[in-house]
Amino acid sequence: MELQNFKRSRCIAVFWLGMAVVTLNTQAAETFRKYEPGNVPQNVVDLWQDFDARKEPLDVTVVKEWKADGVVTRYVTFKVGSFKGADARIAAYYSFPDNKKQKNAAFVWSHGGGQRAERGRGIYFAKQGFATVDINWLGRPMEPGIDINTDWGKVDPTQGPRFYSKALRKGWKRNLQPDEHSIDPVASPRNSNWFLLTVAARRAITFLEQQPEVDPHRIGFSGFSMGGMITALTAIDSRIKAVVPFVGGSGFKFLDFPGGIEGSSIRAHFLNLELYKNTVDASAYWPLVECPVLFISSSNDFHSTFERIYQSMALLKHGDWRVSTNIHQNHGPGPEQWVLLNKWFNQHLKGIDQNIPVTPPSTFDVSGGTATFTVTPADQNRLTDTEIYFSYDPNSRTRFWNKADAKRSGAKRSVPRWSVQLPVYDDLPLYVFALCRYRLPQSVPLERGETSTFVLNSIEQSIVPKSVNLQALTKLLKIRTAFEDFSNGIQDWSTRDQRSIKTYKFQNPELIRSNTRKLSLTIDPQGKRLLLRLNAGSKFLSRQNNLGDFSSVKSISGDGPQEVLIRREDFGSTDEKMLEWSKIATFEITILDEATKQKINLTSKAGHTILKRIQLVK
Fold first, then answer.
1. What is the mean pLDDT of residues 572-594?
2. 214 and 208 in contact (C-beta within 8 Å)?
3. DSSP code at position 282
4. Inter-residue contact 139 to 129 (CB < 8 Å)
5. What pTM, to 2 d.p., does this model score?
6. Would the CA dihedral through 208, 209, 215, 216 be positive or negative?
7. What is the pLDDT of residues 449-487, one digit of tens each?
8. Within 10 Å of residue 265's Cβ, how many Cβ atoms?
9. Roughly what angle, to the nearest 10 degrees, separates helices 226-234 and 193-209?
10. What is the pLDDT of residue 8?
11. Phi and psi, residue 4, nearest 5°
12. What's the CA dihedral at 489, 494, 496, 502 to 10 degrees?
């Protein structure tokens, strides 16, 4: 079917592959019978046992097709089900290599909250030899001039009218209580938006199964953020051969962090907490997942928090799983993580051995008030770096991960290992893990960027006392006033744009953070007129410590190093609160060249000749 058969970008209904769409004058049968009091399933197995994702016709409509560079992409819609007397249909991009009648490995992609399906993603993966269906569950516009899109009918698992023009609610519905738009008239897991999104995901698997370009025995699933959660809930489907959840899909969201950090769980949203735990939370699903799992995230992710990832993987009844995160980041895996999606699906869907090392083996021993962590990475002929990080802070969203001074040991004929010894405190937890970096045979082009290395995490080792005293963090020895001198580059920082830098270092309990101090930055404008912008945020600290967002802007000019002093009072906020140094979760620095309107690259050595030093001074 050639693109010229379509007039410009107008939507034309094309029925394809013999899937005849029959128009019925009678109302479609309901996909689910309503639950009544007393017969609501109380576990995952009972919840899903009667659902057959192949039962109802998909009624696929091809809206538009593109062919270019050896890739075919189709804008399609298909039926999710019939709910409350109306059909629900989802739009998607279906992309596959134009390799004639070859059967391809395939996977479903599920976007995250606030996002949409993307045509470019499917094109990239088709060029890597995969067919994909990228489901547009949120209903945001996908193509200019095409109005046909996701239509949930009389139900609504979206995030409200900001994203979905036909929204029936003002926002996201996570609780299990009934309302006029829910499937069941009683408290039920099917009233949670997650249930309907998982139904759509399973129907997407059915869609792939039925495509002539797809090998139905080689199908995987992946998704980002909320799509990661959808991946976890869909992973129990026996048709799935491998999954890769990104920054979403961890369980145990109903548990507060150690020490009772307010706002660290979602338990307050549920009147039926036990029913949620047993039927919706991902911790109820992971014990049933039989396929290989690669969990990709960031060290400070707000959605899939660090400990919860490992707690979830521990529920698997098999050992074929890995975790890969970047460091000092929230919700933004880097190229060293994204490349593993290719490798994982090459390995488990295509059957091409990728030589993915095992999870780096580690040991953790506590004796006499000292903990010893040792990691012995496999495949050390490809190993380029081994970094060990630790923290005493139970808030995994905002903790500062200290890089340990690890000692390498091992005789000539033994396998080298890396160890660190750390003090243990009676009323504080200790968390330790290793990040191991490996070389790839050659640089791999990604949808965005490229990489010649990838990262695997060890298991996170920890010791958590029965009683955690959060105040004990403030009593740890204060030994640091020098915030940063960049002698180790930006090892304690992260960047999204390769220009600005962000850190969690204000949460380092070793830092002297008295509010009587001022922030001192040593800057050499090098004859330029610069604009310094500082952003500080308290988001994801405990509820009582979340002061909001603050910013400070200052013009700097001249030649030669100069000290720029910033007081707490120099930071402004929308609600006129006063900044406190100890209540800064994230701290971001941007320097703009006012002549060129370009950001200075603060990730580079050249950038560190401009921004030289940061301190908290008296």
1. 96
2. yes
3. G
4. no
5. 0.94
6. positive
7. 999 999 999 999 999 999 999 999 988 877 777 789 999
8. 16
9. 70
10. 34
11. -70, -15
12. -100
